[in-house]
Specification:
The protein has three helices and five strands, in the order E-E-E-E-H-E-H-H. It has 98 residues and is α+β, with helices and mostly antiparallel strands. The strands form two sheets. The protein has a three-stranded antiparallel sheet with strand order 4-3-5. A hairpin with a 5-residue loop joins strand 1 and strand 2. The radius of gyration is 14 Å and the shape is globular. It starts with a strand and ends with a helix. The relative contact order is 0.20.
Length: 98
């Protein structure tokens, strides 16, 4: 799950997410999916962020894992709620990409 920082021509820095399948930026949370594969009990899940358009190729890339997925917008919203302890709207994640 490549997450990085990008500086615009105006000098503003913002976080960006790169697709684990094609390597290009996911421009909006609405255009991505979060995939994860859980192994044995008490093991950490591996998760990947991909464009919705790259989902079929991604799912076929490793058939040894039982991939689950949800829209990126929902995943990021749940991540904020669980980590901050303060419920926030998914709209806050839309601003993440601006």
């Amino acid at each position: 799950m490549p997450i990085g920082l990008e500086r615009s021509l105006g000098g503003k820095v913002r976080p960006v997410i790169l697709c684990d399948s094609c390597g290009h930026k996911i421009e909006s949370a609405e255009e991505g999916n979060c995939y994860w594969a859980v192994g044995e009990a008490n093991s950490l899940a591996r998760f990947c962020l991909v464009h919705a358009r790259c989902s079929l190729a991604f799912e076929g890339s490793d058939r040894t894992l039982d991939w689950q997925f949800e829209p990126l917008e929902r995943f990021l919203g749940r991540l904020v709620v669980r980590r901050s302890g303060v419920p926030r709207l998914v709209d806050s994640w839309r601003r993440f990409f601006r």
